[in-house]
Q: What sequence folds into this?
């Protein structure tokens, strides 16, 4: 029994099976010997065997992939990959400084005795 765990989080995780070949379950299509069961959080997405490759899926829940084997017939196995989305970040927008004109009034902007009411 082997288990792979991919933690959940705020950013979605995508799991993709690139190759999948386990021992086939028999003439009734049951997965009885070598199986992979995938959990999306606490919910089972299914039990897989033979060449029944799991679909690619994306989730923010934790993922658990369980491999159970009976150690008799060996097949190629499986390969999967996962990637976590990285949130996009935007640089803060800054406003270009605007030109400041000399205040209206008779003085130089000091406010003292110039009648324009500004103090710098």
A:
């Amino acid at each position: 029994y082997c288990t792979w765990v991919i933690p959940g989080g705020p950013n979605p995780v995508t799991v993709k099976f690139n190759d999948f070949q386990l021992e086939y379950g028999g003439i009734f299509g049951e997965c009885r010997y070598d199986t992979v069961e995938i959990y999306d959080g606490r919910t089972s997405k299914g039990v897989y065997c033979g060449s029944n490759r799991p679909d690619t899926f994306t989730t923010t829940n934790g993922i658990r992939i369980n491999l159970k084997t009976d150690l008799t017939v060996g097949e190629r196995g499986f390969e999967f990959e996962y990637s976590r989305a990285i949130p996009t970040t935007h640089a803060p927008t800054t406003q270009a400084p605007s030109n400041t004109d000399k205040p209206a009034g008779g003085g130089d902007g000091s406010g003292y005795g110039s009648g324009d009411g500004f103090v710098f």
